[in-house]
Amino acid sequence: MFEIYDVALIPLIVGLVQVLKTMGLSRKFLPLAAIIFGIGGGIFYVYPDDIKGGIIVGIMLGLSSSGLYSGTKNTFEKQGECDS
What we know:
The protein has helices at residues 9-22, 30-46, 51-83. The protein is mainly α and 84 residues long. The chain has one domain (4-83). Helix 1 runs antiparallel to helix 2 (30-46), helix 1 packs across helix 3 and helix 2 (30-46) crosses helix 3. It is globular, with a radius of gyration of 14 Å. The protein starts with 8 loop residues before the first helix and ends with a helix. The relative contact order is 0.17.
């Protein structure tokens, strides 16, 4: 069963995507990377015995992490515009 502490994978995924970004991965592939990391976490950590459940939860984790990343980025960019 998906537990509340499994949500801790989201910041981990954000961090892994950030590493890929600093390594030069194109920005247009970052959301896809987040979903792939999410699916990997869903299959191997959350639901190791249920591939379908792991994929579904992994997609949710990946989409949540890409939303967290873009929301944070947009917040800081807008704040920088206001400071000028």
